[in-house]
Amino acid sequence: MRIVLVGPPGAGKGTQAQFIASHLSVPKISTGDIFRANVSGGTELGRQAKQFMDRGDLVPDEVTIAMVRDRLGEEDARDGFLLDGFPRNVPQAETLKKILAEWSNRLDLVLELVVDEDEVVRRLSGRRTCDRCGRIWHVDFDDKQDDICDDCGGHLFQRDDDKEEVVMHRLEVYQHDTAPLVQFYADEGILVGIDATGPVEEVTKRALSALRPLED
After folding, report:
1. Looking at residue 144, which CATH number applies to its domain?
2. Is 91 helix (H, G, I), strand (E, B) or coil?
3. 16 labeled binding residue
4. Residue 74 CA from chain centroid, whole number
5. What pLDDT shows up at residue 213?
6. Is 92 annotated in some ligand binding site?
7. What is the pLDDT of residues 181-191, one digit of tens each?
8. CA distance 165 to 113
9. Which of 203, 208, 209, 210 is nearest to 11 (CA)?
10. Which of 75, 116, 174, 199 is the most buried (most CB within 10 A)?
11. Does 50 count as an annotated binding residue?
12. How far is the C-alpha of 26 from the C-alpha of 74, rounded, in Å?
């Protein structure tokens, strides 16, 4: 089964991707993982990407797409995969469609994790990171009454990209770049949206239920 997972920042894509990929016995493929593998492996694409990453710039589409093409061509992805973080826009989606068509394949499903903006802001702006062990706590979900890590005693701080104004900007970028992707896949007839609010286990149940017709 070949699946793409989409949704705004804070929708829980990374968490759900792990569960879904494990359930389907397919590799979870994220652009972050691909970037790290290429950079640490010293590949030509990795060297190109690192130049942009070191400057804090976005890696160009052509480099990202080349990395994704290579990864999808690996043996473990031949019979299926779950893509998390790619495609991010309609041009990337059109290119992915062409790549899969070259291999006589196509996407089976695009699963959209649906969550409203207020919930995203609450989820992300409430996160606090330990400056010693790196564990992430949440001021609401973990019932934290102080700024001390319960695991190691380190100090908890709010990362810049978790601040409310930054989260709002990330949502604006998502609406501009990635939301049209949802319409693209809806037009393709392969989009299924699920409610991504509530406990992680409940969201996973909804996701697996959406996949069930394809498994029969």
Report:
1. 3.40.50.300
2. helix
3. no
4. 20
5. 87
6. yes
7. 999 999 999 99
8. 22
9. 203
10. 174
11. no
12. 12
Token pair listed for 21: 């990929």
Q: How many domains does the chain have?
A: 1
Structure confidence by residue, pLDDT tens digits, 122-174: 989 999 999 999 999 999 888 777 899 999 999 999 998 899 998 898 888 88
**Can you read off the two tokens belonging to residue 168?**
């709002």
Which single residue is written with the structure tokens 């319409």?
183
Range of the domain at 126: 2-214
Give residue 177's pLDDT: 82
pLDDT score of 141: 86
pLDDT classification of 201: cutoffs 50, 70, 90: very high
pTM attached to this predicted model: 0.84
Q: For residue 29, give the 3-state DSSP assignment.
A: strand
Structure tokens at 137: 């706590």
Report how far residue 19's alpha carbon sits from residue 191's, in angstroms, rounded to the nearest whole number: 19
Mean pLDDT of the chain: 91
Give how far Cα 167 sits from Cα of 12, 160, 174, 176, 211, Å: 15, 9, 10, 14, 30
Cβ–Cβ < 8 Å for 156, 128: yes
Burial of 32 (0-12, 13-18, 19+ CB in 10 A): exposed
Rg value, the chain, Cα = 18
Q: Which two tokens stand for residue 44?
A: 């030509």
Taking 90 as the threshold, does the pLDDT of residue 206 lie above it? Answer: yes
178 marked as binding residue: no
